[in-house]
Design goal:
Blueprint (H helix, E strand, L loop, with lengths): L2 E5 L4 H13 L4 E8 L2 E12 L4 E2 L5 E5 L2 H14 L26 H5 L20 H10 L17 H13 L3 H13 L3 E2 L10 E2 L15 H8 L4 H7 L13 H5 L7 E3 L1 H8 L7 E2 L2 E2 L6 H5 L3 E4 L6 E4 L27 E5 L3 E6 L4 E7 L10 H13 L3 E3 L2 E3 L1
Parallel strand pairs: 5-7
Antiparallel strand pairs: 1-3, 2-3, 2-15, 3-4, 5-8, 6-8, 9-10, 11-12, 13-14, 14-15, 16-17
EC number: 3.1.1.103
GO molecular function: hydrolase activity
Pfam families: Beta-lactamase
Length: about 400
Amino acid sequence: MSIQGTCAPQFAEVRTEFERNFAERGEVGASVHITLDGEPVVDLWGGQADPLTGQPWSEETIVHVWSCTKAATSLCAHILASRGELDLNAPVTHYWPEYGAEGKDTTLVRHLLSHQAGLPAATSLLPANAFYDWDLITSTLAAQKPLWQPGTRHGYHGLTFGFLIGEVIRRATGLSLGQFFEKEVSGPLALDFWMGLPDDLEPHVAPTIPVDPTEPGLLLPSLFITAMTQPESLPGLMLLNNGGYMAPGESDSRAAHTAEMGAIGGISNARGLAGMYRPLALGGTYNGIRLVEESQIPQMSITAVSGQDAVVGVPSRFSLGFQKQVNNTHLPANDAEGLLMPEEAFGHTGMGGSLGFADPKARISFGYTMNKQGPGLALNSRGQSLVNALYRALGYHQSSNTWYA
């Protein structure tokens, strides 16, 4: 397998593990990018963007990064909070009055960011292509009764997160989520990262290679088993009532790539993910571009909720909008995926295994994207091997599967 790009000698083990992903762990096409003190130290890509045509993964290849998009959406909220234009402790109704229906008037903006809002899915049947109609989804969520009392528990808002936060951002700024992200983040930082992909970039998108549920020995997470056997459950509502978005192949449609979906719709690559986190690893600014004040970083990195996730069914941990390290290796094999990194780090995985994060203490940013999905929602062995190699190169040690300086 031909690997392209550059890698500083200190991080040679990252390249070795990247190569092993292709040779031993089923990687098809992927990219990984790491910055240290703002400078790229790893920038690698390789494999096939499309095995059906033989198209190689190139420097320009981009791919659907699924829930890594949640971090981009959360960053937009923190930018506004840092400027004093969004109060994370204010009721959602301060910005979005209609949201107060059905007892949701006590929901705070921070509850949306920490997956405590009680709206991980719509309960009324959504029509076909509903996720491509912003006004339909936001009005549906505004009118719905929460599935638990907001603020009393947390459960992964896998598909609704972006509509909830995005509508608050739209009400506060007058810009759509994708417009605000491009104006304040991806444009100034010159990132390959879009929520709403332009037509001319469609040829650069590597098609998603989904998990084959008939693959011998495949272990499906309990989230998917519950959804398939109990469609009325929280996992079932989240994964089945989405207007067909989760149907095979739909996420690769042009309609899906065009839509602004701040929970799951982002298109990027490793360079784009790491580039978004680079200022956050450096106190909020990079190359004269300030995203947030340094005082905002703790709001992004300190754990807000932890424990058993009401939707996913396994332990999860979140700050205000970002995933924190979580060690689920003690669980049965089908649920043992986690996110093993230092406590100071914050970021987000994407379904099938992509990852972006910042570590302000180590002053690093990290991005990993791929087209061949693993079976879970969190980080599988391919991405975790790269994270492990990175921290070994930095001289960290591992205890109880967590990394420490």
